[in-house]
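Bug #2210: token dump truncated for FMN dependent NADH:quinone oxidoreductase?
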Amino acid sequence: MTTVLHIDSSARTTGSATRAMTARTIAELGAARVIRRDLAAEPLPHLSEAWVSANFTPAETRTEAQAQTLALSDTLVAELDAADVIVIGLPVYNFGVPAALKAWIDLVARAGRTFRYTPDGPQGLLTGKRAIVAFASGGTGIGSEIDFASRYLTHMLGFLGITDVTFVHPQAAAA
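Reproduced locally. Full output below:
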């Protein structure tokens, strides 16, 4: 049974190229289970001092307030952990990823949960997963020298252990 985590990050809820591509990708995958996360409809908070403090407190010594502070992050990590395939809509804003997607990344990049530090450097803990990224930009070509979005997202997914990353974009989708 394949589980897909479907993440849309476009601020545009209608007329969005990435939303159209992620919907098409989800339909083509025919997954048994889809976990949906719409970062425009349900914005995520940015990291705070309380979150950072709670995150760096060992789980066994966290207060109830610290556990509550991390509850949403724990849910997001559980969604990511449950997924076999992650489908992400990546519109390029100002040469980078949308703030909504960056907030999601900040909340799921957790030492000891999604990656760990080893004597040989960081090691992603979310191996064996595949990511399909729907990339759209009004003028930044994917892989171009001004495309910081696809390189950043590829790096962050790899940092978490997700190294099987495929990009689709409107030109490729039309072909």
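Output looks complete on our side. The helical segments are 17-29, 49-55, 64-69, 71-82, 99-108, 149-159, 170-174. Marking as cannot-reproduce; reopen if the truncation happens again.
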